[in-house]
Amino acid sequence: MDTLASTGSAPPSGTAATLSKRVAALVGVLSVAAALGAGHLVAGFLDPSASPFLAVGNSAIDLTPTWLKNFAVENFGSNDKLVLLLGMAVVVLLFAVTAGLASRRRATPGVVFACALGGLGILAVLTRPDLGQVAVLAPLASLVAAVVVFRGLHRQAMARLSTSESEDPGGADDSRRAFLRTSTGVAVGAGVLGGLGQVLADRVDVEGSRAAIGPLKAAVPAPEIPPGADFSAVGTPKFITSNAEFYRVDTALSVPRLRAEEWKLKVHGMVAREVEFSYADIRSRPLVAKTVTLTCVSNEVGGPYISTADFLGVPLRDLLLEAGVSPLADEVFSTSSDGWTAGTPLDTLMDPKRGALLAIGMNGEPLPVEHGFPARMVVPGLYGYVSATKWLVDLEVTTFGTKTFYWEDRGWARKAPIKTQSRIDVPRGFAKVPAGRVAVAGIAWAQNTGIEKVEVRVDGGPWQSAELSVEVNNQTWRQWRTFFQLDKGSHRAEVRATDRAGYTQVEQRVDPIPDGATGWHASLFTVD
Ligand SMILES: Nc1nc2c(c(=O)[nH]1)N[C@H]1C(S)=C(S)[C@@H](COP(=O)(O)O)O[C@H]1N2
Ligand SMILES: [Mo]
């Protein structure tokens, strides 16, 4: 059966009709727009992350080689996802234009392109850990829309050509108008479908659920932050990072939307009995508040991925005790609603002094959506990628190596305690400061061990002990400041911290991968 548009609307014999580049490209672009719109609509019904564009983006994130991911995080920071989406949009646009240009005579190449793009979406959806089989309907809808629209528009464009070459000028106008009408219709339709899909995707009213929670009260409040806990007056961060300023690192292209009302946490695996907790179960327990500094393993020396908050929740230890963990187990494998995973040493979670939390509150509010609403893990002293699972839905008690977790699969260490580190916040690199007594200040951290001493030197001179801020607890950062009398010119300050275990930071720089950066932070600045 040959139903190709080009044969169905063959030009007058003798002339091989060829679409103009502009029209051909337009046919390609409109078909892809229709495909994205249709896929987004179907995904809106099924699962927003089944939208082919998002699914392909998420797969791209998971498949990105580690060096490229690090490059993206380093250079674009929290904008890395925006950059990815824009990059994908450009690639898709180029793809669409190419598909159109390849089909100036016959529709077949474009149909092949459409099938390839649809196939990519299907593959992406099928391999997402968080999507069921039905979700494949979304990229399937895209594929069908792409093929139907491409062939339809192509046929009309060809018809327009053949009539314009015929002797009937009225017919040429009619077919030009018809093509214009269809193109406009497709463009508007794609927008409407996509918009509807977005409305459907947003119908999970997560902000409503969050707002309905009301005040969360701590049975065991965190001690007040004492005066003198930070040196923000000279330019270090405030001791508590506001929720809006708290660093954010995750692989989620669209933030998971979970409602507290439907949320459940399952604890299973090597346990005496499987248990399941609802949000109401958790919040009706005595809630414990704790001030903790979270740190990302990807943080470069001097980097920004460190913040401190008051977290509120229940000890993970209690939940694990209720399930009854096997003495043979040594790992808790946690999974988020979007299929991200982490592996945490069981003994760390069972240590009452460590006080790891299933957190539902952050700085006096329910967890913000981007920080894991309704519930996440907070484990003092471990980098986030092995412990701080957001949008947590599943805890499996198991042994290390039985399954491998997200970043372990990508070359990062299986175990990752936070390394003792320090950072100079003032003077910032390349800052200009007035001559005289110059404040050098910043932060240091050695979660779960505590900071003993911070030393600073300028221009390779003698190390000078800095004044330390009032300690809040050993699971948070400690701030420091000191002063130097400096002449005009450029200067270089360096810092090194010593923790309570007696370890002093070494100068040698090591990259974040596989288990965290080391090295002294230095700041080059000018006095004038
Ligand atoms: N579901 C999920 N949880 C996650 C991640 C993620 O990608 N997905 N990233 C982890 C990493 S690497 C870090 S450093 C912390 C960051 O938590 P924050 O974004 O609240 O600062 O979350 C952890 N929890
Ligand atoms: Mo991280």
Feature tags:
about 525 residues, alpha+beta, Sulfite Oxidase, Chain A, domain 2, 3 domains, five-stranded antiparallel sheet, disordered N terminus, binds the ligand Nc1nc2c(c(=O)[nH]1)N[C@H]1C(S)=C(S)[C@@H](COP(=O)(O)O)O[C@H]1N2, binds molybdenum atom
Present the secondary structure layout.
Layout: H1 5-8, H2 21-46, H3 52-63, H4 66-76, H5 80-101, H6 108-127, H7 137-165, H8 169-201, H9 206-211, E1 264-269, E2 275-278, H10 279-283, E3 288-295, E4 306-315, H11 316-323, E5 331-336, E6 341-345, H12 346-350, E7 357-362, E8 365-366, E9 376-378, E10 392-398, E11 421-426, E12 432-433, E13 436-445, E14 451-458, E15 464-465, E16 467-468, E17 478-486, E18 489-499, E19 521-527
Bound molecules: the ligand Nc1nc2c(c(=O)[nH]1)N[C@H]1C(S)=C(S)[C@@H](COP(=O)(O)O)O[C@H]1N2 and molybdenum atom.
Describe the protein's architecture and organization.
The longest helix has 33 residues, at 169-201. The chain has helices spanning 5-8, 21-46, 52-63, 66-76, 80-101, 108-127, 137-165, 169-201, 206-211, 279-283, 316-323, 346-350, and strands at 264-269, 275-278, 288-295, 306-315, 331-336, 341-345, 357-362, 365-366, 376-378, 392-398, 421-426, 432-433, 436-445, 451-458, 464-465, 467-468, 478-486, 489-499, 521-527. The protein folds into 3 domains: 21-201, no CATH class; 237-410, Sulfite Oxidase, Chain A, domain 2 (Alpha-Beta Complex), CATH 3.90.420.10; 421-527, Immunoglobulin-like (Sandwich), CATH 2.60.40.650. Helix 2 packs antiparallel against helix 7 and helix 2 runs parallel beside helix 8. The strands form 4 sheets. A 5-stranded mixed sheet has the order 2-1-10-5-6. Strands 3, 4, 7, 8 and 9 form a 5-stranded antiparallel sheet that branches. The protein has 528 residues and is an alpha+beta fold. Helices cover 34% and strands 22% of the residues. The protein contains 12 helices and 19 strands. Ligand MTE is lined by residues 246-252, 294, 296, 336, 338, 340, 371, 384-385, 388-391.
